[in-house]
Amino acid sequence: MKAFWPRLLTTALTALFAASATLAGTVHGSVINRTTGKPVPNTDVDLLSPTQGMALLASVKTDAQGQFTATNDAIGAGPVLLRATYQGVSFNAFLPPGRPQVDVEVFDVTKDPKTIVPSSHVIIFQPRDGKLIGAEEYNVKNSSQPPVAYFRTEGNFEFALPEKATLQNVTATGSLGMDVPQASIDKGKGLFAIAYAFRPGETNIRLSYELPYPGNSASVKLPATYPGMRILLVAPPGVTLTGEGISAAGQEQGMNVFLHDALAAKGSLAVSVSGVGSPQATEAADGQGQQAQEGNSRTQGQQVDVAPPRIDDLKWPMLFGLVALFGLGAILLSRKQVVVAPAEEEDRTLAQSKKVAKAAGQQSSVEAVKESVNASLDSLKEDVFRLELRKQAGTISEEDYAREKSRVEKLLRDLVRG
Q1: What is the pLDDT of residues 323-352, one digit of tens each?
Q2: What is the pTM (predicted TM-score) of this model?
Q3: What CA–CA distance (Å, rounded) separates 162 from 269?
């Protein structure tokens, strides 16, 4: 009789483990049309693994109520990207480890160019290896009501390169916070376009190019594709930017900032760039390397990091004290096989999961956790950098600035809690 209870406990634990293992490989979800507020039946949904090179885990269809169920042993053991195809456009959602339920949001698609409004334009120059690297970022807003997605297969976002520039890379970053490489469409005479589905909300379009830099100086003519946007230029210490209408605006987090009023339609801005930059700034830019991009079928060539350089001399005043928590967080989290992201961190976790995947099979769980935390902090640092630049350029209201700052602080608190 005494042996009965241990056997019963063992049986119960075994059954519980088997049930949890089964649930870990199953996900239930639905596809919702946020334009109409109704579920979408008979729609294809693909489940992809960002940590396995976007390997296809499962492919299912929604039922008459817009719901679906998919099973795969990898579900629950790592992040999953869900992709629903609606009106010929792919819409993505992210499923972090440990969550068995997810909704994929889709929108009706429009071809009206007035759906989007480019709101800010940041240009960064960085000399490197005898070349001048240019990196530009457009912040694009879709405030459509009712909410719709803007897409054109022939190209629905255009950008122009300076003369003699060689395009290196174009990416789009939407609500998931993940840089998705885009194939460029050459329109001729230095004008290019991409075909990207702009969902409601904000999207960042980033591009990079190389320019000749003989004698550590160059005259760059920047065409205006979208008029009416105040331009913000950024360069590391040791690099001088001059031109008509360009005014110095001090420094932001170790980088020199310059402003220029909005250009007229078909206008251009002539900028003289000279200098090689301080060794510290160059090392900071080189230290970030090149990011391996995981995206859709429009991936092309070798990907170059087009985000604003991560400045190593930034002391992260908002992040002071977090370093001391890394060791404790790693010890606590290393006891778990699966790192569960808070709901508010889902989008950011997907962007960083690719970096963690590079170390799969080569790092211990503790090292993987440390890398994930550091990657999240790097991403937050870039958010703070862009937020301050937008405030400096006057492209964000005080109300929006306060709201975004509050959001970043909340993400920091969530990150500390693990």
Answers
A1: 333 333 333 333 333 333 343 444 444 444
A2: 0.64
A3: 10
Please give the structure tokens belonging to residue 76: 């629950």
Question: Residue 316 corresponds to which amino acid?
Answer: W
| Closest-CA residue to 383 (of 370, 371, 396) | 396
In order along its 418 residues, the chain shows pLDDT tens digits of: 445 444 544 544 444 443 444 345 899 999 999 999 999 999 999 999 888 888 999 999 999 999 999 999 888 888 898 999 999 999 999 888 888 899 999 999 999 999 999 999 999 999 999 999 999 999 999 999 999 999 999 999 999 999 999 999 999 998 777 788 999 999 999 999 999 999 999 999 999 999 999 999 999 999 999 988 889 999 999 999 999 999 999 988 889 999 999 998 889 999 999 999 775 444 444 443 343 333 333 333 333 333 333 333 333 333 333 333 333 333 333 333 333 334 344 444 444 444 434 444 444 444 544 555 455 555 655 666 666 666 655 656 777 777 777 776 666 655 544 4
| Separation of alpha carbons 94 and 343, rounded Å | 10
Q: Tokens 């031109």 sit at which residue? A: 243
DSSP state of 289: -
Contact in structure between 222 and 134 (CB atoms under 8 Å):
no
Give the closest residue to 273 by CA, choosing from 245, 238, 241, 232: 241
Q: How far apart are the first and last CA of the chain?
A: 44
List, in sequence order, every residue forming a beta bridge with 103; answer none if it has no partner: 30
In Å, how far are 45, 339, 353 from 348, measured between CA atoms? 22, 14, 9
DSSP 42: S
Name, in order, each residue with C-beta under 8 angstroms of 187's C-beta and a sequence gap of 6 or more.
155, 158, 193
Conformation bin of residue 395: beta by default, left when phi > 0, alpha when psi is -120 to 50 = alpha
Burial bucket for residue 122 (CB in 10 Å: 0-12, 13-18, 19+): buried
Using N-to-C axis directions, what is the helix angle for 365-393 and 346-358, rounded to 10°?
Answer: 130
Measured distance CA(408)–CA(321) in Å, rounded: 16
CA 143 – CA 8 distance, rounded (Å): 59
**Opening angle at CA 378, ends 377 and 379, nearest 5:** 90
